[in-house]
Specification:
The chain is α+β, with helices and mostly antiparallel strands. The chain folds into 2 domains: 2-72, no CATH class; 84-160, Sep15/SelM thioredoxin-like domain, active-site redox motif (Glutaredoxin). The chain has 6 helices and 4 strands. It has helices at 2-30, 36-42, 50-59, 63-72, 102-110, 150-160, and strands at 88-93, 118-122, 129-133, 139-144. The chain has a 4-stranded mixed sheet with strand order 2-1-3-4, with no helix packed on it.
């Protein structure tokens, strides 16, 4: 009986070790981060919060997209980084492609005037994006907005762009 108990105990230890290694490997894979360029190519930026990825998953049932989102997101926090504001922004878009983005057209025609520090710039073949500017009008962040609704643009700009330029 002693040999049988020792054999069973050894099997249990091996099984527990395999489970532990699998869980550890899964945790490491889940925390894998992509480079900024890789994320931008996928349409994600470091400005996306990881909690946004969970909300995203409720609507888009694609595990690969969720995985990419989680590799490009920023952990949710209440620190000063989450309260970054910008002096202005450039809404860059290709004029020929505007027909495919009715939400962006609506924003430009009806909402843009609420943001005097946001300029529209038409660049050939450019996907729709917001280029966030610091106090010296230097580009700080670029955010793809291909699939944003008008209300998302409004909310984002209200939270992230200072109401008036310091240069006024």
């Amino acid at each position: 009986m002693g040999a049988l108990n020792e054999y069973i105990l050894t099997k249990r230890v091996v099984i527990l070790w395999v489970i532990l290694m699998t869980a550890t490997a899964t945790g490491v894979a889940a925390k894998e981060q992509l480079t900024t360029r890789q994320c931008e190519t996928l349409g994600f930026t470091g400005l996306a919060l990881c909690s946004d990825c969970n909300t995203f998953a409720e609507y888009v049932k694609n595990p690969e997209l969720l995985s990419d989102c989680l590799k490009c997101c920023t952990e949710d926090s209440n620190d000063s980084m989450s309260k970054i504001t910008y002096s202005g922004a450039i809404l860059e878009v290709c004029m020929r492609k505007l027909v495919f983005y009715p939400e962006i057209v609506g924003f430009i025609e009806e909402e843009k005037d609420k943001f005097p520090t946001v300029k529209v710039q038409y660049v050939f073949n450019s996907p729709p994006k917001l280029i966030m500017l610091d106090d010296e009008d230097q580009q700080k962040e670029t955010i793809r907005i291909d699939n944003w609704k008008r209300e998302h643009m409004l909310q984002f700009l209200q939270e992230k762009v200072k109401p008036t330029s310091a240069k006024d």
